[in-house]
Amino acid sequence: MSSQEQHPDSANLISREEYDRVVAENALMRSVIDRLPSELVVVDGDLRFLIINKAAIKDDEMRAWMIGKTNADFWQRRNPTSPLATKRTEDCAEAIARKGDYSVEETFNAGTPEEKHYTRLHRPEFSGEDLSYILVYGQDITVLKKSEVRLLIQNAELEKVNHELDQFVYSASHNLRAPLLSIKGLLSLIELNETEAAARKRFIGEIYTSIDRLDGTIKDIIDYSKNARLDLIPEQTDIEQFIRTAYNDLRFLEETSVELEVNAVTDYDFYTDTRRFKSIVHNIISNSVKYSDPAKGGSWLKVNIQVDAESCRMEFIDNGRGISEENQGRVFEMFYRGTADRTGSGLGLYIAKEMTERIGGRIELQSSFGKGTQIQITLPNLHPTVA
Description:
Layout: H1 3-6, H2 16-35, E1 39-44, E2 49-52, H3 60-66, H4 71-78, H5 84-98, E3 102-109, E4 115-127, E5 130-140, H6 142-191, H7 197-229, E6 234-236, H8 239-250, E7 258-266, E8 271-273, H9 274-290, E9 299-307, E10 311-318, H10 325-328, H11 348-359, E11 362-368, E12 372-380
Helix pairs in contact: 4-5, 6-7, 7-11, 8-9, 9-11
């Protein structure tokens, strides 16, 4: 009897060679699926797991256990309280309702404090009206998200720089041209034969004033440029000495006397970028002198200093003219002047703030119009042992 006669259904059987080929193809397909760098999961119409690759579930035992189980079964074993327990089922339901691709982004913590970001594509496959399966493709986009955040920060910084550059060009050109035009006009008056000697002397004095304004603006622009370009160089800093030196340089800046009082509690050595620190102190004290109030019995500036292992906190308190409430929100803007009766560059407080933040500190201002101003500056102690 032939094999066909012995086995009536033998026509439906495959040869050993064909069987081996199918097994080899399945093994290859399984290997390819497990080698995919992205997550791949296939669920049936009842949302039971059919295929799970290693990128989706790394644990071999867990992956084998999940086959035939539902998403609810998985999260009951893994973490029943996770918001993903219901969300992933809802995402599959949405893809079924749409009868087409449905993409979502997920953010979660995979057992670590660091957030993970994934994008998941749900692609349902139908046979007529019946759902055959849903392919779920997951891609880790954590690095991309971090790059996106960095890009947003850089774009915001670039917009800030562009805005400041526009403002800088406009205001700097005005601040530089105004003294030059003033000097030019004064020189033309001096050249007139009928100008009296006393008037000429007064005009020459005004020329020197204009030159000082021009020089001050140029110095502020240089400080602004250096702050953006130069690295931080922490050095041991004698805070009180810097403050007293700046005060002695500026105390008679506006032909008015301002008394200085310094109260220092410095139990620790303080390290900071001395170049920037000097500029910060100079600009703060300069403002206290420029905007002192001659109408008051005596002008004063009190500086309170406290240094510990982590930081230096300074308070600059004066009894000057103060700043109106509506102007206080803008005093740290580039080229902004809180009053119209002074001729500074408008860069002083802006530079102080930029340099403070460049060092890693913060600056705050409180003021009462007609009473005085208080500026608080906190800087990190960049002591080598602390840093």
